[in-house]
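Problem: given the chain below (630 residues), write out its structure.
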Amino acid sequence: MLLKAGASRPACEDALLEAALYGQARAAGLLIRSEMVGHDVAQRALISACCRGFVDVVSALVENGVDKNCVDRVLLRSVKPALHANVDCTPLVAAIVSRQVPVVKYLLEVGARTGHNFRLGAWSWDIYSGEELRVGACLGEPYNEAWCAVEYYEVSGQILRLLLDHKSSFLSTHLQGRTLLCHAILCQNCDAVRVLMEAGVDVEFPIKTKKGHESRPIHLAAQVGCLDVLKQLILHGCDVNSRMESGETALMVATKFDQPECFLQLVVSGADLGLVNNNGDSAVQLAKRSCFSSSLPKLISTAILSGENVFSSRLEVFSSLHFAAAVGDIEILQKLVQNSLEGINKQDGSGLTPILISAKAGQTEAFRFLIKYGADISIKSRDGHNVMSLIKDHACASVKNRFEEILLESVLSQTLNGHMEFQALHFAARAGNLNAILQLLKLGYGINSLDENGSSPLMIAAREGNADACRLLLQNGAESVETALSVAKKISKSKAAEDVIFDHMARAHVLLGEELCKHTREGRGKPHLKAVRMLKSGLLSWGKSSRRNVICKESVAGTSTNFSKNRRNKNVLDTNKGTLFRVVTETGREVHFEAASRGNTALWVRGINLVSKEAKLGDWLLSSLAENKI
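Solution.
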């Protein structure tokens, strides 16, 4: 109608553009054949129709001579990734960005050329260091149609497949050291990665920079933290332990760029935790310095409990058993020892075994578990530390005490493997554990053995104020009684223990007996030496006659009033004040003795009273039993 009415050229050109935008293929064909449209307008109409996806309009224009490889400036729009810019592009690129599958298919069928580079991307990277930077749409490196199809990916993947089918060399060509797969990973486009892998892309293609830096696609995936892409690469057979020029693996890259999910996926997929980089750092060491260091134990625990084999080619660098011992995870320890006990005594780089690590870390339950399963406690680390030295280094007394309790239990159950410096009897004495003391004595532990400080079990029990433990040790032949008594006297809490030890000394002293100076006639007679001893029956004896074998009622330090008076009357200066004591018999008779020293006097007074009391208690018990029998 316009043509018949004699419309002008500008009117025809505007009409063609409108027809291209609204899909009027017949009108577009008439207008393009009228020779009333300029080449630049025809090209713009073609690109506009490609953006809108009108294949019939595109077909009409191409069939009527519009260049299918023309370049024109057009507004390209995309929601994701965001794009709203006027760009010089070809009809094919416009169709790719606009996700128009039928148009792309048609243009490729009619021979549209590929290989043109256009600046549409949002990513740029340094060709020397390889560092990536998101710079924004149309500011990145110029790339061809396949790269465009990856960044502006059509959800079904048909556009990318069409391009790869049309030109397979897209898979191998690279841009500044990077391939199409690298771009898909950088865009974190898992679907595009899958399409590329189906097309046969090389997942081990090295990424190289002009400075000699070299890496693999799996390193890039670990760096950007795209878990789905990483899984795709691993499923496709990518080497999880491939190294960069710095010696770093994908596992190390994940730790450096704080990607905990990728770290876990790589560990579960068999990444070697025993490898180190050129600086000698392992993945676990790097992870301990990362932002997810606090969650590292949970990540490795999850990997171990997942049922997959957490692999380490060098146990001195990393061992699952050492790790579990350090964090005190009993569930992991159980799982590991059920599989194999082979590594239970293996040493790491510092010479530490799992049990040494648990002792150092204060993990008491892990320590108990490892002892139960036969861990050797005699092994020393490279710096000479053993289990006991590590336990003693703990600042917390309760933790130290708990470790020693576990060792004591193991000694009693005879489950300890290896010789060690643990003084079980000394610890039992310190803790006041009477049952343990008895069992240890039955096992042959030396009751008078000395620890590294020269203390016997009795001294330790006295120092801790464990009176019952002191009594039990003394009953079983403990020596160094005087030293133990002096120790007890220095500690205020040890009064009860002091009494027990002093009672034992006093009893032993009077039952053994010694020469005492006996005073006669209440101080008026001449004193003379007598061999005096106490009998268990309660008799004090210094001869054979009945007057020299008396039943004691009590013994008192010092002299009676009459004795002191008689001594004064004789003008005797008493220079031995403090060494005199008197014994009161059951009949009321008083006998005065003089010991060699004040200490001996105290022993005689206490010993006589103690043995007398015990004898009376024994008689009372016998009479009570007799009455009950009757």
